[in-house]
Amino acid sequence: MHLRLRSGRRLQTYLKIGTCVLVGVCYFAFLFRESLNAFEHRERATAAELEAAEFTEPSKQQLKLKRQQLQRQRLLDQQRANSANGNANANGSSPLTSKTTAIPASTLNPVYEYSEELHSRTERDLKLRREHLAAVCERYSLQEKYPPNPWEFFISPGHNNLVWCNVFKAASSTWMYYFNILAGYDLKYLQRTEVQPLELARQRFPRPELSELLELLPSALSFLFVRDPFERILSAYRNKLEGSRNSFYKALGTKIVHRFRRRSTGGPWPRCGPTFEEFVRFLIEEHKEGRRFDEHWAPVYSFCTPCSVNFSIIGKTETFQRDSEFIIRQAGLESLLLGKLPRRKLRKIGNLAKSGIKSEALVERYFADLDRSTLDQLLKIYRIDFELFDYDFFKYYDMVHPWNLEESTQPVGTGTGSASGTTTVSTSQATETHD
Fold first, then answer.
1. How far are the Cα atoms of 130, 210, 212 from residue 144, in angstroms, in the given order?
2. Residue 79, exposed/middle/buried by CB under 10 A (0-12, 13-18, 19+)?
3. Mean of the pLDDT values across residues 172-190?
4. How far does the chain reach from its first CA to its final CA, in angstroms?
5. Measured between alpha carbons, how far is 153 from 210 in angstroms, rounded to an integer?
6. Most distant CA pair in the chain: distance in Å?
7. pLDDT of res. 345
8. CA-wise closest residue to 382 among 408, 419, 328, 353
9. Contact at 8 Å (CB) between 385 and 393?
10. Nearest residue to 113 (alpha-carbon basis) of 387, 315, 334, 366
């Protein structure tokens, strides 16, 4: 009896164990089958998408790019044919000549008309600029006088280590817009926002530490843009002090007027801002007293320190479009930046003058208010910039009044002893660029 009960319990236990094992095997088999089905479904969906993409019609943007590529190819073929015809003519033959359509060098907005010839010419120019700057730096031992200053640098490590030193009043508004695109801001937001571009950019690209800048520079694509120094300070004067509504610069203009303007005894102070001659006298006195300059008219050598920072590219406002697009291509940012400047907002982005007249067209008129002695003193502040970036300062002596005929005998190295104080003053009230 006991034996029968014991064997019956053992049989029930075996049956339970066998049932559990069978259920487990069935469950894992079911999971395995579902995984295979899911994988096959995903493969079929991917194949279907690829097949559909192969037969779908191209978008308008794709068609536009294709047309542009075909047009460029036709123009290049036509140029080669005309070049061959020119060679044949030089050899005495007289084939029929045809008119060629010139390829535009480059523009800010349209797709970059790239050519190997333009690329090579740009590389040569940039190399000559670097060599010239290095020679001037060595001649006057400027590297020891002006160590690296990271204050106005922007670093975008996520875009091939792009490093830019922001020179105010030298096309900086456009590159501030580009850096805000790199920061991830929506294009429509950038066009309608009233927040200053510099403020937006610094939220995503904070001011770097010196150690961070020095560590990144050897592997970075670093650049800055420069401008004729006197055109730059005239642009700053027109934008910030000549009828400016900015409260900070209105207050500064009032101080300049009270300090440098002569008035009739007992007469009221005039309400207009300082004249250009008063502004120049202000710069000269500030330099003599070793005070720090506002970043909009501080000499480039004092805050971008190009003799201590080995910039990859030295761009100029005179070749701004070409140099900018060269930088964009070197950084591999064509799809992000080329053609992203809205034409309707170019005046706002570029901080163009309301009159539409650029400062370089008005230089002679404004400098006619200065005398030669004042020009000599102003040149003591900015002559290093003139020499570093290969600009001509002699032409300004033909613009000023020759009332003081003393020849300027001040060497380049002197007159800049107080330039260590001629550094930038960071003001959040202003971020615009050249007019």
1. 18, 16, 20
2. middle
3. 94
4. 112
5. 10
6. 139
7. 56
8. 419
9. no
10. 334
